[in-house]
UniProtKB/TrEMBL annotation:
Keywords: Oxidoreductase. It is an enzyme of class 1 (oxidoreductase). This is SDR family NAD(P)-dependent oxidoreductase. It comes from Micromonospora vulcania. PANTHER family: 3-OXOACYL-[ACYL-CARRIER-PROTEIN] REDUCTASE, SHORT-CHAIN DEHYDROGENASES/REDUCTASES FAMILY MEMBER. The keyword Metal-binding does not apply. SUPFAM superfamilies: NAD(P)-binding Rossmann-fold domains. Its EC number is 1.1.1.-. The lineage of its organism: Bacteria, Bacillati, Actinomycetota, Actinomycetes, Micromonosporales.
């Protein structure tokens, strides 16, 4: 196993992904803009991890994170582009600055991390399994009110996945996306009535229960691991059978 970078590792799904990849035997380099939640993940991992608070919008800080991670734990062999923001604002009212912020984190941030990690993956050489997983979202299918800026970045994550899979495949680097449904996380506090939201989710899924972050992390584990050695350019929908794509 190699070195996995997880962005947004202090968040609900990022925490579970970091824990699962550590369990798989990956050495971890993790980052988040929120210091206290990043520390919670570091503590949950027993402290044996390279961690740094970085704002994905800061390209220089991001580059320094990857350089220092390489020095501390070795060249990156897996990247999970997970950090994202999802402000719910009616389309006709959203300020341009807020739109640009969503794109700076969810789109430009994914692009920058993929490039910084990709360069180290080339350096790591073909003896190592190397892959990128971009976290997309069920919201890119079928439309979603008040999330227009966010959904464009999630559709973009899938397009980026396919473009990079095509370009990096000849170097042996796999690139896939995971598109989560509605997992039971802190994120749904954005809804006015979380219980009604939860009931709506279960009603729409084929499986009549909420998914857990650990179940999403298991799919990321599969895609970053040797069992997915011939899988690239794909988007795995992990949503309990809500959208079937
Ligand atoms: N929770 C779900 O059900 C769900 C559904 C669909 C897609 N997703 C996707 O899964 C991923 C994780 O979502 P989550 O539910 O864990 O959300 P979350 O808000 O719990 O985690 C996101 C993390 O990203 C970090 N972050 C935000 N802005 C940042 C920045 N500028 N620089 C660095 N880090 C920053 C946050 O601090 C946070 O820890 C996201 O890509 C999200 O779009 C989640």
């Amino acid at each position: 196993m190699g070195v996995a970078v997880v962005t947004g590792a202090g968040g609900s799904l990022g925490h579970a992904i970091a824990q699962r990849l550590a369990h798989d035997g990956q050495r971890l380099a993790i980052t988040d803009v929120a210091e206290h939640t990043l520390k919670e993940t570091v503590d949950a991992l027993g402290g044996d991890v390279f961690a740094r608070v970085v704002d994905l919008r800061d390209a220089d800080a991001l580059a320094a994170f990857f350089t220092d991670a390489r020095r501390e734990v070795g060249p990156v062999t897996a990247l999970v582009n997970n950090a994202a923001i999802y402000p719910t604002v009616p389309f006709l009212e959203m300020e341009l600055a807020d739109y640009e912020s969503v794109h700076a984190v969810n789109q430009r941030g994914y692009w920058l991390c993929a490039q910084l990690a990709g360069r180290q993956m080339v350096e790591a050489g073909t003896d190592e399994d190397r892959s990128i997983v971009n976290i997309a979202s069920i919201t890119m299918h079928g439309g979603w009110e008040k999330l227009a800026a966010y959904v464009t970045t999630k559709g973009g994550a899938v397009a980026l996945t396919r473009a990079l899979a095509r370009e990096l495949g000849p170097r042996g680097i796999r690139v896939n996306a995971v598109s989560p449904g509605a997992f039971k996380t802190a994120a749904e506090e954005i809804y006015d009535d979380p219980e009604a939201y939860s009931a709506m989710v279960v009603e729409r899924q084929a499986l009549k229960r909420r998914g857990t972050p650990a179940e999403l992390a298991a799919v990321v584990s599969f895609l970053t691991g040797p069992d997915a050695a011939f899988v690239t350019g794909q988007t795995l929908e992990v949503n309990g059978g809500w959208v079937m794509a």
